[in-house]
Amino acid sequence: MKTFQSRLSSQRGAVLIHVGIALLGLIAFATFVADYGVMWVGRSESQTAAVQLYQSLGYVQYGTYPRYARVDGQWMAGLFFWKDLAAT
Questions:
Q1: Model's pTM, two decimal places?
Q2: What is the number of structural domains in the chain?
């Protein structure tokens, strides 16, 4: 039973990653069409999957804010990324 549940959890995680990629692509496209040209995003350092997704899509980290969010009573840094949409 645990094997099935862990496999199901992995499949849900993979689906969520694909949905995240699709949504980020759609937002980036809308930003490009609106002629903004650059997209900025920020996430807590605890959101490692999101950070890895941004990096894999070519976003460049440009800054860190040490007290971005509190998680379980502990401060987490915020990581900030940007991407030049005209260059892609």
A1: 0.61
A2: 1
